[in-house]
Each structure stands twice: as C-alpha cells, then as structure tokens.
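[09:14] KT: can someone run the structure on this one? pasting the chain below
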Amino acid sequence: MGKRVILAVAGAGKTYHICHNINPDKKNLILAFTHENIYNITKELTKSFGSIPAKTTICTFHSFVYRLLIRPYEPTIFDIYGEQFKNTRGVSFAEIPKSFCTDGTRKWSNKNYHKVTDIAHFMTPSRQYYCGLMTDLLIRVNKKNKNFLPHIFKSINEFYEAIYVDEFQDFREKDFEIIKMMVLNVENILLVGDYYQHSVSGKNNTGMPFKDGKKSISYEQFISELAGYGFEVDSHSLNESRRCSAEVCTFIREKLGIKIFSQDIHQGKVIEVPEDRVKEIISNDDIVKLVYSNAKNYNCFCKNWSYSKGDTYDSICVVLTEKSNNIFKENWNNNLSESSRNKLYVALTRSSGDVYIMSSQQFAREVSK
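[09:31] RB: done, structure tokens below
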C-alpha cells in the first residue's frame, strides 16, 4: 500500500472505499476523528464482511493517542518531565482550565491551572488527561527527546500492517502534527478525505495543514505539501459523487470552482425557488431546510449548513446568505470566505435528489410571519 492519500469529493464513498478495500487477513488499524465516523465504519465493515474482521481495530484518533501513544509510555513521559510516575485515571473531556478566573470585573489565579512545564498542566485534579491536550503533551515530550515519537511509531509497524485514516480533513494543528509524524515513520498508511470539507465545524477550524498563519493553503499547495510528506496523491479515484446528480455537480463546479463530478446514480435538479412556492417548501418537512446558522431558532425542519456534514437526504432546500444570494446571476463572483464556501459546498451536496435554493430574503419573509 505504501503512503497514499486520496482526495475525495462529497458523497464519493470515502468510508465505503476504506471498508471495501482492506485485506481482512491483515492487522489493520482504522482511525477516524468522530464517534459518528466510527459508527459508519463499523456498519460498513459489517456489511462488507459480515462482522468486523478479527485482526482489524477501529478507534477514534484520541482513543488511539491515549491507548497506544501515551498509556504504555507514561513512566518515560513523567521522567522526561522530571517527575516520578503516579497512577493516572484515563481521559477527561472537561474544559481545559485557563490561567485565571474572572467574574467580569476582576481576575484571580486559577488553582487548577499549571504551567506547561509541569506534567499536571495536562491533567485534571483527579489525574485524568485532558483530551484536548494529549497531542500537545506528546509534541512537547518529543521536543525534549526527539526520538520519543519516531520510536513509538516505528514500533507500531509491529502491531499493524496497514493504517487507514478516514476524513483526514478533520485533523488540525497538533492532531495533524501527530498524523504527519506517523506518516513519516510507518510503512503502510492511507489517508482519505475531502479538502473542501475542512473548516466547517465549530472546532478544528484553524491552523495547519490548511492555514499557514493567517494565510490559507490552496488546494494545489496542499497537494504539493502532501507530496512533500512522501505521499502518493490520488485526486481521481474518488472525484465522482455517488450521492449528487450530474446537474448538482455541474452547478457546484461552475459556482464554487470545486471539481466534483457525478456517477449518475441519482437524478436531481437545482431549482431556484419561485416566490409562489416559498411557503410550500418551507412547510414541507420532507425537504430539510439548510441554513447558515441558528437552525434551532426556526419553527420548520432546519439544520445548519455545517451540521449537515455526513448527512444524506432525498431533497433539500439550501437557504442562501446575503453574500451568496446572487449565485444564479451570470456575473456571480464567488467572493465567499474559505469557510463559507466550504460550508455551502457541504450543504449543496447533501441531497441524492433535488436541491432547492432559496434566497435569505424569501426565507426571512416567510418564517417571520
């Protein structure tokens, strides 16, 4: 397998590709960022093989970090921090404490905060690792002992013959740094993801590999960087959507400049909603309304553009923003921010059928009645 990355498009079957191309007789490790992805992988593997292959391990990235990169090496990590190892108690998803507390008018030191030079910085008072700081801890330990992570990752070659990372675009900053270091040191690894679905969630929206400081990394620059990491980059195998119709894909290519094509499995049109159909479409719960934000504020079946990531519907109605209202015009100039473009792309690719598109004014007039 070597070191490969597949740049996919929405609905191309990223998870399907991984689950139907593993060798069930090999020791496989499949990583994903969210529990929802893990559920989808488990379901697809079971569909493909009848059950999870005995030699295949599926886990979230943070579970992998704790179970394979931290837990077995705790005495060494504590020693590098100049402390004697004391038993820890797993992982906490609690909020990471700031150095100070405030009531809005005054500040005082937070007794639960410790400096990064102290191992306690990375743990709760009950000695659980903060989930959001585990990769930061590993990076800092590796800076003190540059052989630490390379040694661990090379040993992982003994445990697993092939590693798969689903939805790689969800990994940012220190998490991506760990993935990158793993790539450099393991023998067989495949990353699958969609460049244009980065920066759509409420978290993991900043920093490498999609930003260099404040500057965004373009699709072409990203491919070049991946090649620099030693990847064979494949941007063709999964560039056809199994979900979206040819007309929807053409619309996205022309309006957003994203190279998505269709496998022509489904039929569906892009429909600019006429005034006389606004009420009908908003009241039809079989057509989910995808709004930019604050979906919970509306008394119809709505979902935020970004929260619809991973969903598939029979038909949808995408409610535009002020900046995208003129998308149907001949002189449309795509001046959306990178994040807004990606969120709109996610929204437009949720339907296996028709995609209705409604202006922000049409939607506001009807829901405010």
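[09:33] KT: thanks! The mean pLDDT is 91.
[09:34] RB: yep, looked fine to me
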